[in-house]
Amino acid sequence: MSDSKEPAEAEWVSKSQLKRDAKALFDFGRRLTELPESVLLALPLERSILDEVLFTRSIRARVARKRQLGFLAKKLRGEDLTAVDAALDQRSEAARELKARHHRAEAWRDQLLESGDTALGKLLETRHDLDVQTLRQLLRNAQRELQANKAPASARKLFRLLRDADNITPLPPCN
User: Fold this and answer.
1) Beta strand spans in 33-153 (E)
2) Structure confidence by residue, pLDDT tens digits, 102-129
3) Most Cβ neighbours (<10 Å): which of 5, 9, 80, 87?
4) Are 59 and 71 spatial neighbours (Cβ–Cβ below 8 Å)?
5) CATH class of residue range 96-168
6) Residue ranges per domain, the chain?
7) For residues 81 and 75, what is the distance between their CA atoms, to the nearest angstrom?
8) Which CATH number fits domain 15-79: 2.60.450, 1.10.60, 2.30.42, 1.10.1760?
9) Nearest-angstrom CA–CA distance, 45 and 29
């Protein structure tokens, strides 16, 4: 008997799995072409891939664009895309956090306009760093504007104040 090791068998992959992988790369290439150019240039992509993405973006004919996306997917097949995927996920996470901060500030603004001083008291129990006088003044002006059917300038200022406060330290959840 020989002690030589047998070559490791390649893991069997179904045809359906190959199709799913190819579609995932196609969708990833499409996602890359839809990114703004500033974001695209910041990604850790090889120059040849970046050139193909930029070229694909320039094609306007539908069939030609689809064919070029297929070619881009083929080029992406041999690349390690974990760093690019991680960078895109990080960008998406930052966008989700920004959206959550905006929603919190909007919820507090709406709660303050609806409930007035009771909601302001709840907010000030947890956030002692806020300027009480400015908040009360903006709240009164926003309520007056709402009753007079005027443009919500004070409500916008109130939102900006809450958003800026949330950027420093997150606001508590609005009840």
Assistant:
1) none
2) 999 999 999 999 988 889 889 989 888 9
3) 87
4) no
5) mainly alpha
6) 15-79, 96-168
7) 11
8) 1.10.60
9) 12
